[in-house]
Amino acid sequence: MAIDFRSDTVAMPSPEMRHAMVEAPLGDDVFGDDPTTNQLLEAAAGRMGKAAATFVPSGTMGNLIGVAVNAQRGQELIADADSHVFYYETAGAAAVCGVQIRPVSTGAGVMSPEQVADAVRPRDDPHEPISAAVTFEDTHNRHGGIVWPLEALRAASDAAHREGLRVHLDGARIFNAAVALGVPAAEIAGCADTVTFCLSKGLACPIGSVFCGSEDDIEEAKRWRKRLGGGMRQVGVLAAAGLYALDHMVDRLAEDHANARTLAEGLAELPGVRCDLSRVQTNLVYFDLEKMPATVFNDECAKRGVLGGPTGPRQVRLVTHYGIEARDIQSALQVFDEVLSA
Ligand code: TLP
Questions:
Q1: How far is the CA of 124 from the centre of ligand 1 (A)?
Q2: Which of 96, 133, 248, 331 is 20 to 30 A away from residue 261, measured at CA?
Q3: Is residue 40 within 8 Å of 210, Cβ to Cβ?
């Protein structure tokens, strides 16, 4: 079996989670009849400190609904230039919602209150689009899986609200952030009007994300979900996995973080590797190779049973998750050493 660091999305449901899925009472969720989904949505909204929630098939759809609910066609959404929404969601905001993204280069993934305010368009100039909303990402994927300090998130969110913007949080990995900070996820989500979080990443569910917000936001979100073809029927099969995950898979994320740290520390010792350990705060490890293209490194490691993901010509990302054990970290480090010393 390969040691698969390509993403936490590859994590498999545990036997207990599969059992919960098989046993779940079901109904038609488009009618609002699925008891297991309703139970998940109540629990999820509670965990995020929001009034309501809706189940969506993916983080991408959750974020797209976040765009649609918070901005109108022809308006602008402010986002980090390295955010998932801007970088990896196939221009959905533009293509589907008619919303333009205004990318802001933050350098390190944390947008300052000044950067938020500076990105807002003057309201009285008819040449310019209306700035409707801003999105933040926590943990921040392309910035190393870093966690926003709560104060910084609150300050950026306050600045946005002062400017009359709505705030959407891409909390795909919000529970990694919460575990790293040692706070309830609601403390983080409290900075946003709407939040998407993923069940199918570190929480090891097979499918699914949850979009949370006010009752009005969720009414609008459900209309968008239907429009996008994301209204699902006996979705309790998936919601049961989510319920199991909220109860059993959150605290264990600390193990993934510890494994990521050991991995990063080991990598930093290897020849030709540059890894900024201060950026390894959760389950993502990014590093640069001085002597070898990332694709060559990746292919050589794959031949030896270790899978990772090149994220730039010389950059590699490794992700720890449920199913990767401390001993796998040691085996992987041996493979990396062999490949880099060859
Ligand atoms: N991220 C995936 C890839 O798309 C890059 C990964 O392997 O990390 N927000 C953030 C911050 C994400 O990292 C992702 C997935 C999403 C949203 C989208 O979630 P899905 O894959 O469920 O659409």
A1: 37
A2: 248
A3: yes
CA of 312 to the centre of ligand 1 (A): 17
In 3D space, the residue among 311, 310, 313 whose CA is nearest the CA of residue 302 turns out to be 310
Measured from the CB, is residue 131 less than 6 Å from ligand 1? no
Instruction: Say how far apart CA 24 and CA 17 lie, in whole Å.
Output: 11
**According to DSSP H, which parts of the chain are helical?**
15-23, 35-48, 59-70, 84-87, 92-97, 113-119, 150-162, 174-181, 185-189, 215-227, 236-248, 253-268, 294-303, 326-341
Which residues lie closer than 8 Å to 144 by C-beta, 6 or more apart?
109, 276, 279, 280, 281, 284, 286
Cα–Cα distance, 333 to 27 (Å, whole number): 47
Spatial distance between the Cα atoms of 249 and 80, rounded to a whole number of angstroms? 29
Q: Cis (ω within 30 of 0) for the bond into 139?
A: yes
Q: Which domains does the chain have, with CATH numbers?
A: 13-248 (3.40.640.10), 252-341 (3.90.1150.10)
Which ligand 1 atom is at minimum distance from the Cα of 58?
Answer: 22
Q: Is pLDDT above 90 for 162? A: yes
Contact call for residues 83 and 106 (beta carbons, < 8 A): no
- Minimum CA distance residue for ligand 1 atom 4: 88
- Do residues 174 and 202 make contact, with C-beta atoms less than 8 angstroms apart? no
Q: Which residue is closest in CA terms to ligand 1's atom 7?
A: 7
pLDDT digits (tens, 9 = 90+) for 84-122: 999 999 999 999 999 999 999 998 999 999 999 999 999
pLDDT tens track for 37-84: 999 999 999 999 999 999 999 999 999 999 999 999 999 999 999 999
**How is 33-98 classified by DSSP, letter by letter?**
--HHHHHHHHHHHHHHT-SEEEEES-HHHHHHHHHHHH--TT-EEEEETT-HHHHSSTTHHHHHH-
Q: Are 52 and 218 in contact (CB under 8 A)?
A: yes
